[in-house]
Design a protein that fits this description.
It contains 2 helices and 5 strands. By secondary structure, the chain is an alpha+beta fold.
Length: about 130
């Protein structure tokens, strides 16, 4: 039972770490400009599924958002097109920061489960040695 808890929490750690990585990429590129009409950075989204062969979850993949890029009027920008527009990723920094907090708390919760399960296992071993 203890090993199941560690294994399940371990899958949660992996999923949350991948989510944190994707959010970090999104935040780092929120202000990455590209010339209008070219491919802009797209928000990365992590997909997670329940394990079928073992308990826990696994990262099914990282996909890019289908949201269109934002066009911003900035005729002085070096990437501005002939109409003065520059393209930015359609990423909201506030949303990314909120999700970052949720992902961090999920990671911390799974790490706490691993730590508590390890402590429980060590206590059981100590009881066995003294018994």
């Amino acid at each position: 039972m203890t090993f199941d808890a560690i294994g399940i929490a371990g899958t949660g750690l992996t999923a949350h770490r991948k989510w944190l990585d994707a959010l970090s990429d999104n935040i780092a590129n929120v202000n990455t400009a590209t010339p209008a009409g070219e491919d802009a950075f797209r928000e990365k989204l992590v997909t997670v599924q329940a394990g079928t062969d073992s308990p826990g979850v696994y990262v099914a993949g990282v996909v890019e958002s289908e949201a269109a890029a934002k066009l911003v009027y900035d005729p002085e920008h070096p990437y501005a097109d002939e109409d003065g527009y520059v393209q930015y990723p359609n990423i909201e920094l506030g949303d990314q920061m909120s999700m970052l907090i949720v992902a961090q708390r999920g990671y911390e919760a799974n790490a706490a489960v691993v730590d508590r399960a390890k402590t429980t296992y060590e206590a059981a071993l100590q009881i066995g040695r003294n018994g």
